[in-house]
Amino acid sequence: MSETAQAAAGTAQAPDSNRWKALTFIALAQLMVVLDATIVNIALPSAQQDLGISDGNRQWVITAYALAFGGLLLFGGRIADIWGRKRTFVTGLIGFAGASALGGAATNEAMLLGSRALQGAFGALLAPAALSLLAVMFTDSKERAKAFGIYGAIAGGGGAVGLILGGFLTEYLDWRWTFFVNIPFAVVAAAGAYFVIREPAGRNRSPLDIPGVVLSTVGLVSLVYGFTRAESEGWGDSMTIGLFVASAVLLAAFVLVESKVQAPLLPLRVITERNRGGVYLSLGLAIIAMFGLFLFLTYYLQIVKGYSPVKTGFAFLPMIAGMIAGSTQIGARLMNRLPARLLMGPGFLVAAAGMLLLTQMEIGSSYAALLLPAMLLLGLGMGTAFMPAMSLATLGVEPRDSGVASAMVNTSQQVGGAIGTALLNTIAASATTAYVKDHIAGATTQPQQQLVQLQAQVHGYTNAIWFAVGILVVAAGIAFTFINAGSPDATAAAAGSLEGTEDDVKVPVIAH
Predict the structure, then answer these.
(1) Most buried one in 230, 326, 365, 434, CB count within 10 A?
(2) Angle at CA 371, nearest 5°, toward 365 and 377?
(3) In 173-234, where does DSSP find H-type helix?
């Protein structure tokens, strides 16, 4: 057996006695990162007014975070492998706390945007290190199911928690507290991790692939910025098209470089294995649908229904409850009994059924009769699918690749979120404009015109949600088609035949 295999086997035989305590601090850090993606959304109008940010520049409060986070994730995952997962995790937490303090104390636009970019950069260190630690600390299939059930619920529901917390902080305190609230999260998680987590074995200490870092970072930043720009400037804008072309060229060059270099940033064996590839692709598509929905429901509840920020946040509670139940009760209980595709595929279809209900939204739709059951279905479906997806995304990788495999999970989520927000918002805006054009002539009074405007907005939301339904159905199809791993118990048993190979893994890996 290879040295890597022996280290991995040793880790499996003697698991970290503090792993469940460690899970508490890892989950806390993950919650902070996920909710930060949405908590600032509700505070943005107040921050814009306070700091004098123009309408044209306000999107950069969101975009600066997404660009740094999405662009640096693969680099962050590789740093976790080289430098150590625990050290990278703690450093990411401390840096995130410092960047949050800077954002909360911002006195001008540049200071706020700079703090958001720093948050994204340190988040790109923190997120893959967190998932990588879980992947190598929980090797027993039953324990792994429980641990990833908790992690999956947080990854899926953290965005909705951010909406609730953002509403409370903005309405009752000040927008600056949407930044300051990260500091206690980060300090507690960093202190706990420092004293509780023991660095697992199996690190990849190969030299850093500098060409890979540059190509992947610039390529991903171009992709995320292209979709963000498409939302504001349109798909036909010359710079938008240029960004997409540049992204395609850079990412193609990245794949070529990774297939040639001796110590690649992203070993292609991580993504060419069909199960992990299927997880990354289906998860990214599901996030496209999910992030667009958060945006539309927030606007629908506040603008059309007249909900306050706090009431809007509470309106998302059924979705959070559904996600927690789906992850910890359905997914975690069935993960050791059913193949992952029989949880992920049906989970995405149940979420699609919830989306389908929301295509029936009208101005006067009842929350209890329509939105409540739709959000419950969405939460249950996504929670059930997220749980095995998070586990399978890192199951079967060599310990030395766990950081970069974890980074790929986060990359698919971040890029999916950016694409979902831009793509679905553009579809909704086009449908809204067309509806107003067709119906405004018949509205002769101001109340009638206002009614047409509201109807147009709802028409735009439902049109975009139809696309989200289709995207979730495609995600389910990918899960059914690509993912063929059995239950973790069967998969682990099958791995016994691989002992003595270079890859000490739980499922066969296709080498590049």
Answers:
(1) 326
(2) 150
(3) 177-180, 182-196, 210-233
The span from the CA of 124 to the CA of 88, in Å, is: 10
DSSP string, 107-120: -SHHHHHHHHHHHH
Query: How many other β-carbons are positioned within 10 Å of the β-carbon of residue 499?
Result: 10
| Residue whose tokens read 């603008």 | 303
Question: What residues pair up with 499 in beta bridges, in sequence order?
Answer: 501
310 token code pair: 């706090």
Q: What is the pLDDT of residues 138-197, one digit of tens each?
A: 777 777 777 777 776 676 666 667 777 777 887 788 889 989 988 998 999 898 888 887
User: Which token pair is 177?
Assistant: 């507290």
Number of C-beta neighbours around residue 332 at 10 A? 25
Maximum CA pair distance of the chain?
A: 81
Per-residue model confidence (pLDDT) at position 83: 84
Count of CB atoms situated within 10 Å of the CB of 511: 11
State if pTM tops 0.70.
Answer: yes
Query: CB-hemisphere CA count at 13 Å for 96?
Result: 33
Q: How high is the pLDDT of residue 497?
A: 34
Question: Do residues 230 and 426 touch, judged by C-beta distance below 8 A?
Answer: yes
